[in-house]
Design a protein that fits this description.
single chain, 300 residues, mainly alpha, globular
């Protein structure tokens, strides 16, 4: 467990191979389950270790930024979004009336919807853990499966978001619509206004890999959170789906994701939910094996 926590921290200094880092980090939650009897605290710690492994997998492609730039895809999501937007990507359509010097109340709500995403998937699971504990194992497995499968695409098909494409001069209005401007990254613009000197340290802490847009795990995990909450009751489900819809609009409006990124994230979530019954027997067998190891460890 200690090795799994340490490996992502020292990977650059020791030049650890990616399989070593990811394998060790992924083993940490299993080691915790063997070492410590089950409790709510252990459930929380297991999820935290799972996310620690995910963060390592998310950031590691950017350990070699030059190599990542050589592999990044910029144009194909623009081409798809031009079709979706009938000639103009939806991000440009949504931003065309925005004012860089003045953020409207709606735009501020959308920025905050984006910022609070960092707690939404895990907060939804915390609600299930403390109010509907019998549903927690399945809910956690589905949620973190979306994270783990999604991060594989960031290694295989690194894809740039709209704001990055605009910086590279690749997301420009079509000649017939010159009244439209290049896409802006409105979240950063508002962050600099709201947080002032505190913005840069905060942003640098959260920005581990700028070329990880396809699929949108912001949207995918928020949709899964909505499903998880809906499984506990209609009121919680309504809250979850309202947030997911708001975040979807925010991601496109603010220049963080293309519509096609959201579509891919939605598809990922639905595939994970549909595949769950087929793969559950294998995961239950793995869970029983870990439980046997735990029993032997506790007896010793």
């Amino acid at each position: 467990m200690a090795a799994g926590i340490a490996a992502p921290l020292v990977r650059r200094r020791l030049r650890l191979p990616a399989p070593v880092v990811l394998g060790t980090a992924a083993a940490a939650p299993v080691a915790l389950c063997v070492a410590i009897p089950r409790s709510r605290a252990r459930d929380v710690a297991t999820c935290a270790l799972q996310m620690w492994a995910y963060i390592a997998a998310y950031e590691m492609p950017n350990d070699d930024p030059d190599g990542l730039l050589e592999r990044v895809h910029i144009d194909y999501p623009i081409d798809v979004d031009r079709v979706i937007g009938l000639g103009v990507p939806p991000t440009l359509r949504l931003q065309r009336h925005s004012d860089p010097d003045r953020f409207t109340p709606l735009e501020k709500v959308l920025v905050w919807a984006h910022w609070v995403w960092f707690i939404v998937p895990h907060g939804s699971l915390a609600y299930v853990l403390f109010r509907h504990r019998d549903k927690f194992p399945r809910s956690a497995a589905l949620t973190y499966a979306v994270f783990d499968i999604g991060v594989l695409f960031y290694w295989a098909v690194p894809t740039a978001p709209p704001w990055y494409a605009a910086l590279q001069g690749r997301l420009r209005p079509i000649p017939e619509r010159q009244e439209l401007e290049d896409a802006r990254r409105m979240m950063v613009e508002y962050g600099e206004q709201f947080w002032k000197d505190g913005w840069q340290p905060l942003y640098s802490f959260l920005a581990g890999n700028p070329l990880a847009a396809m699929p949108s795990l912001h949207f995918a995990t928020s949709v899964m959170a909505a499903h998880v909450l809906a499984d506990t009751g209609p009121v919680a489900g309504a809250v979850g789906w309202t947030y997911a819809a708001t975040l979807g609009l925010a991601l496109v409006y603010l220049g963080e994701h293309y519509v096609v990124d959201l579509m891919a994230g939605l598809a990922l979530t639905q595939v994970v939910r549909r595949a769950a019954p087929a793969v559950s027997p294998g995961f239950r067998a793995f869970s029983r094996a870990v439980s046997r190891l735990e029993a032997r460890a506790q007896a010793a």
